[in-house]
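User: quick one, sequence for these tokens?
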């Protein structure tokens, strides 16, 4: 995964553009089904750094995932949480394209600003 392309996404709108989705209805919150992705930038090793929180409920069996420096087992269904600024990498098995299923929730830090949740 050392040769992966790095995408640094500063906004939820950038994530929507990268995946071919329509503009989000709210700039600070997005709930999307993976089936809605039009562009899937996952046919080669890729890494992401998001400037927003993300929560995934997904099933993917033909890819290796790395969260920070640790490889994770995503062969079964998984609920996965990421804070802003963390590195997430995907490497699809050779000769295949990624076929994710599930949902993703994206939350900009400003959405929870000045709340108890933002302080912890």
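Assistant:
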């Amino acid at each position: 995964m050392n040769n992966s392309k790095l995408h640094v996404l500063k906004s939820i709108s950038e994530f929507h553009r990268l995946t071919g989705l329509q503009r989000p209805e709210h700039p600070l919150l997005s709930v999307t089904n993976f089936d809605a992705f039009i562009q899937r930038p996952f046919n080669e090793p890729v890494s992401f750094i998001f400037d927003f929180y993300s929560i995934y409920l997904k099933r993917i069996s033909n890819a290796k995932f790395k969260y920070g420096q640790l490889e994770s087992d995503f062969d079964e269904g998984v609920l996965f949480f990421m804070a802003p600024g963390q590195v997430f990498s995907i490497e699809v098995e050779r000769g295949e394209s990624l076929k994710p299923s599930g949902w993703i929730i994206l939350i900009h830090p400003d959405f929870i600003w000045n709340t108890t949740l933002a302080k912890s």
